[in-house]
Design goal:
With 722 residues, this protein is an alpha+beta fold. It has six domains: 5-72, Winged helix-like DNA-binding domain superfamily/Winged helix DNA-binding domain (Arc Repressor Mutant, subunit A, Orthogonal Bundle), CATH 1.10.10.10; 90-156, Nucleic acid-binding proteins (OB fold (Dihydrolipoamide Acetyltransferase, E2P)), CATH 2.40.50; 161-227, OB fold (Dihydrolipoamide Acetyltransferase, E2P) (Beta Barrel); 252-489 and 555-624, no CATH class; 495-548, no CATH class; 638-720, Nucleic acid-binding proteins (OB fold (Dihydrolipoamide Acetyltransferase, E2P)). It is globular and about 95 Å long. The protein starts with 11 loop residues before the first helix and ends with a strand. 38% of the residues are buried.
Length: 722
């Protein structure tokens, strides 16, 4: 009887099988992972058993180890695997940034290409997520809808730190990365920082792979904890997406020097709003209040609305340690159970946060508006404010609905003006995407005990509408002066994606008009209104968003923001948590001061815009990963419970179902459907029984239960309730 190697027992059987595998492939050398695959993977032998066997064979001299690759000892020379160029021809070479997917393939995002370039895992040529690369565009076959390419050079590494599980033996160690990367990292035994076998660690690359060495060499710089521990998993998500877990000593030292009291001399240089009614509206758990609204009635019957933004640049000077680190981070990251701030807590939560009953410096956009929300005058500049009240969204919503409460008159006026601004924006072609947000109630150990679905209400929209107004008008003010700036651009949709979406919407009975950008936005808004409250709402909203281009930061002024229907748009209103807003504040002040234009400004701003766009995507990925992890963790405690769900995706291997009450999504495998033989119909987005004709189609409702969860893969397996 064969011994159970999955329990880690030693056996000469595994030694023999490794030797046979190596001798049968006498012209090759293999990494540890490749040897595990030759033996049948983890389903046959444990990682520990394979490691112990390789140690024994190496000590006996039957196997040699070179450049972290194994071969039979009699081989005179270790062969190396070279990168084989694709047989498909191309020619044009463009430069861009790698955006890796969970499958190991990637998209190259380049300003030199109108569409992202898809690169398979085997054509990445040792490029990793975030790397700047040169990619050769391959010849597109007839009928292909996407552009494919092949990485020919890594120009600059996007990150040098990676997260994974440390595998440790007596003679060597390596890191198995959390993300699929096509390589492991060799760790010298004196560079493990006393981490234990199986722990999650953060490593930094010491030297990259080259033609002679197939694996990068790295050292452990932080031990995060054991897989499955809440803190370890959240830290892993942040580190894996390239965000440092702590601030540098220089940044923290600078933060400590920031004065907490405001200066009377500085107040004299600013417009004083301290006597004007001002308040903030934020989530109930927010600590960094970076915007406030003021309102006062004017003698001519108009209203003066002030949009007041924390004056971060008063405290953070260009090229100071705090500024350099914020530029690198580019954004705060909001996970389920924590915030990783862009600035140290003293600045983000105390000095700059517009806390109630405290005087604060602001950079403000002030508008004189008629009762029908027409802007007759605008002013931009530095101010000092005093926040009279801090509202959370629920408190503000109650005042809007009942007309009663603190500052109810001001709240209702602002709500009326905001709704009129919104109506005008929608009439101009702004697309009104609905939105739901998944929130978690956690216990003291970070385990999710309840999932709450937050719906956007009037109080959220009130703030949104005035922030959009300030962002739009500041961008227009700067761009009218032909000054190099940081714009938030959103191109018109890819027509091919829109056609696919229109076909899908048609299966639900909705028609889209795609003849012009204006018709597209009108038609989309009509559809989004019609689907509200219907089972297909969430699916069609999500797919409509995916059909849109990605918003980004750019110095370009010829694109505008398609989704908002603005010719000019920028981010001005959140400098505590977004670095592009910090840059914009400085540019705006230079405009107000009539400062000369730096001829080098555009090149540097382009670089910073591209980096900010990349880090924004990484932050969004981290936030989605933390949400998905908590959803899987939540469902792991609810195996076998029946829920009503919505089919959100259909493939040839099954269909995805989102549980309606908690938005957790899992896969119902086609192999779990025993009542018929099912075929996939890509046109109908359905799998259909070949004998009985039963259909599981996108948007359909089913009863499901979770049968298995995997926290490391963040997957939920489901089955239909019989």
């Amino acid at each position: 009887m064969k011994k159970n190697h999955r329990k880690g027992k030693k056996s000469n059987g595994i030694d023999t099988q490794i030797l046979i595998a190596l001798q049968n492939n006498s012209t090759q050398s293999y990494s540890f992972k490749e040897i595990a695959k030759l033996l049948g993977g983890a389903t046959k032998y444990s990682i520990e058993a394979i490691m112990e066997s390789l140690d024994r064979l190496k000590n006996k001299g039957e196997v040699i180890l070179k450049n972290n690759r194994y071969a039979a000892a009699q081989l005179p020379k270790l062969a190396t695997t070279t990168h084989k160029p694709s047989s498909r021809q191309g020619g044009k070479i463009v430069e861009g940034v790698v955006d890796m997917t969970r499958s190991g393939a990637a998209y190259i995002i380049s300003e030199q290409s109108q569409r992202d370039i898809f690169v398979t895992a085997k054509h990445l040529n040792k490029a990793f997520d975030g790397d700047r690369v040169k990619v050769k565009i391959l010849q597109v076959r007839k009928g292909e809808k996407r552009i494919e390419g092949e990485v020919v050079e890594v120009v600059e590494r996007g990150q040098s730190k990676f997260v994974g599980i440390l595998m440790l033996s007596k003679s060597f160690a390596f890191l198995v990365p959390d993300k699929k990367m096509g390589t492991d990292f060799f760790i010298p035994l004196d560079k493990t920082k006393d981490a234990k076998n199986g722990e999650k660690v953060l490593v930094e690359v010491l030297s990259w792979a080259d033609e002679k060495r197939k694996n990068p060499i790295a050292e452990v710089i932080d031990v995060l904890g054991m897989p499955g521990e809440n803190n370890a998993e959240m830290l892993s998500i942040l580190s894996d997406n390239g965000f440092p877990l702590s601030f540098s000593a220089a940044t923290l030292a600078q933060a400590e020097t920031i004065p907490t009291e405001i200066d009377p001399a500085e107040i004299a240089r600013r417009r004083d709003f301290r006597s004007i009614t001002t308040f903030t509206i934020d989530p109930h758990d927010a600590k960094d209040f970076d915007d406030a609204l003021s309102l006062q009635a004017l003698e001519n019957g108009n209203w003066e609305v002030g949009v007041h933004i924390a004056d971060v640049t008063h405290y953070v000077r260009p090229n100071s340690p705090m500024d350099i680190e914020a530029q690198q981070r580019a954004t705060s990251v909001y996970l389920v159970d924590r915030v990783l701030p862009m600035f140290p807590e003293k600045l983000s939560n105390f000095v700059c946060s517009l806390r109630p009953k405290e005087e604060k410096y602001c950079f403000s956009a002030v508008f004189e508006m008629t009762p029908d929300a027409k802007i007759v005058k605008e002013w931009f500049g530095r101010t000092v404010i005093y926040s009279d009240r801090r509202f959370n969204y629920a408190e503000a919503q109650e005042i809007i609905e009942t007309g009663k409460g603190d500052f109810s008159k001001e709240m209702l006026v602002l709500q009326d003006l905001a709704s009129k601004l919104r109506q005008k924006r929608l009439q101009n072609g702004s697309i009104d995407f609905g939105s739901e947000e998944v929130k978690f109630k956690l216990d003291e150990n970070g385990k999710p005990i309840e999932i709450i679905i937050k719906v956007i209400q009037d109080s959220n929209r009130l703030i949104e509408d005035f922030m959009l107004l300030a962002n739009q008008r500041v961008a227009a003010f700067i761009n009218e002066r032909n000054v190099p700036s940081v714009n938030r651009i959103h191109d018109s949709p890819d027509i091919e994606k829109l056609v696919e979406f229109a076909k899908l919407a048609q299966t639900f009975g909705y028609e889209l008009q795609l003849d012009s950008p204006q018709e597209i936005s009108v038609s989309l808004n009509k559809l989004l209104t019609e689907i509200k409250g219907k089972p297909e709402q969430h699916i069609l909203e999500s797919l409509a968003i995916r059909s849109m281009a990605k918003a980004a930061y750019s110095t370009r002024t010829d694109i505008g923001h398609y989704g908002l229907a603005f010719d000019n748009y920028a981010h001005f209103t959140s400098p505590i948590r977004r670095y592009p807003d910090v840059m914009l504040h400085r540019i705006l002040q230079d405009c107000l001061d009539n400062m000369p234009i730096d001829p080098l400004a555009i090149a540097e701003l382009d670089r910073r815009c591209e980096h900010s766009s990349l880090m924004e995507r990484k932050a969004m990925t981290a936030e989605r990963e933390s949400t998905k992890y908590k959803q899987v963790e939540y469902m792991s405690e609810r195996i076998g419970i029946t829920y009503e769900g919505l089919i959100t995706g259909v493939t040839n291997f099954g269909f995805f179902v989102e549980i309606k009450e908690n938005k957790c999504e899992g896969l119902v495998s086609i192999n779990s459907l025993f009542d018929d033989v099912y075929d996939y119909d890509s046109f109908l987005h359905a799998i259909i029984g070949s004998r009985k004709g039963k259909r599981y189609q996108l948007g359909g409702t089913v009863q499901v239960k979770a049968t298995k969860t995997d926290l490391q893969l963040r997957t939920i397996d489901m089955e239909l309730e019989k």
